[in-house]
Design goal:
two-stranded antiparallel ribbon, mainly alpha
Length: about 150
């Protein structure tokens, strides 16, 4: 195994451990956050970077910064919102929900770890193989990127 494999395994292991500690409710909110970030991160990253006034040439760097800003803002929102949701569910279930919350956090932590690993793969793929745009507006991957792709496999 190489260092990149360890980088991909770490979020899965940390997701399970932290999932148990945080609980099902907070993890479900994080899973929704990460899934939404995966979907809209690539689309909104250029707008986010333009909105904060950065002038970047590299599309890969724009993507990384856009994902980072979306995730940080989302994590702050989950931290604020999850406490209220946990308190309401604890009151409604008379404390029984606390045990289900802890055990369910294991499974949801595993899912969250896989989603974070998917984002890491997506970011590194976009960073490495940024397509070139031709004069007619078509996007095309350069020959150099294709040779790198098959060289590593």
């Amino acid at each position: 195994m190489v260092w990149y494999d360890w980088i991909l395994i770490a979020p899965i292991v940390l997701g399970v451990v932290m999932g148990y500690r945080m609980g099902l409710i907070k993890n479900v909110l994080y899973i929704v956050l990460v899934a939404i970030t995966m979907i809209i991160g690539g689309l909104l990253s250029q707008m986010i970077v333009d909105a904060i006034g950065l002038e970047l040439e590299s599309d890969g760097l724009v993507t990384v910064i856009g994902y980072g800003i979306l995730l940080i803002a989302g994590f702050l929102g989950v931290q604020l919102f999850s406490g209220v949701v946990q308190m309401i569910i604890s009151k409604l279930t008379f404390g029984i929900g606390d045990k289900v919350n802890a055990v369910g956090g294991l499974a949801s932590g595993l899912v969250l770890g896989f989603l974070v690993t998917t984002i890491i793969v997506n970011i590194t793929a976009r960073w490495t193989y940024t397509p070139d745009e031709e004069e007619d507006g078509r996007l095309e991957i350069s020959e150099e990127a294709i040779s790198k792709m098959f060289e590593n496999s």
